[in-house]
Amino acid sequence: MKTIQKIYECSPIVYLDTAAKFLLICSVFFMPIGTAPTNIFIVLTLAAWLLAGGFKERLSIFHNNYFSYAVLILYGLLLIGALYSTGDISDIKFQLAKYLKLLFLLVAMSLLQEKKWQQWALNAFMLAMIITLALSLISVLTPLSFVKGTAGGPSDNHFVFKDHIAQNLLMSFFVLLMLIRSQTAASRNLAAVYLLVAALAIIDIVFFVQGRTGYISLAFNISIFIFFYAPPNRRILWLAAAVIVGFVCFHLSSNFSSRIELAVSEFQKQDAKELTSVGQRVEFTKKSLELIKEHPFFGTGTGSYAKEFCRVAISAEWCEAGRHHPHNQFLAFGVQLGLVGILAYLAFLGSALHQARRFALPEKVLCIGLLGTMLTDSILHAPLFLVTETQFFVLMLAIMMNFSAASQENKLRAL
Fold this sequence. Notes:
The chain has 415 residues and is mainly alpha-helical. It has helices at residues 2-9, 12-30, 35-52, 55-59, 66-81, 89-98, 101-111, 115-141, 164-184, 188-208, 212-229, 235-252, 254-268, 277-294, 305-312, 316-322, 329-356, 361-380, 387-400, 403-410.
């Protein structure tokens, strides 16, 4: 028996399984840095996963797992929606390919069942975000040629590898991770380091990068941290202090205040039908609701959004601006899959939250923060359509939807 076990432990299957996990960790690391390397490592992960086999054992973790059912239902509806879509065949294929990472989420979940791999995945994300943060702050002091945003001078937009929306969104979640780790650190010195990194990340978001979605996500993540970690008798005091700090930052940060004031101004001018950031979102919302009203229950099918939006758009210019997605994940599903699609997406988010209720405190707060970040992005952007956001949420959910088993088996005290 020992001989058989020894042979198995040295077999190519075990090596392929380990390789798949390592490649997945590489995907997590490169996700905040570059789209191409992340996609390459995702493909390599899938290849190693397929070659390793053992699918019956791998997929057994999804038994009685409501979240995995919600993932399958959501993608299943997209497949069904392709059968009655009014969209062009190219748009149907494009949409199905876009949402295919939902199925990779299940593959990633099957690889991250062990605590050590979850830990390494979070550490990989943390390291990538520290690199991003450092380069963003350095670019404030001196120009860096490879920085995608502007560099040199505090009033510029210092995003590094991605766009400013994606960087601030990821950075806001990174702040929560650092705050939680400051509470679970093995020593006071390490806790102080985590708090310092969190403070620098907050400064970067508020003062040096212009992603407004990240501002909202940051406010949510800090509020969640305070709610769960502040002593009950001081919770209101901590929240009030956070509000005061936010108010001070609004007046001290030209980036922060100007972006908020611009959003208010653009909202007030929405009737002018100008192609502004807020103006577009308002118009996309109105037109999407019109389309949902026409086909409320099942929508017009997967891949139909571009054709249907352009049908009701006020001009060719607006058609081109809004044909890709409505900057709202709920509306994107609503137009294509109707109320059934919206309910399926709510079930997707709700099942993840339901699973988080059994987690240890650090894990629970982190998962709620991720889902809050995803909800914010769902209302203002497209977390399952845009490449960086999709990679981020898929990989992070793959880690966290395994926390339950790890908490029960290992009684985790920290992340």
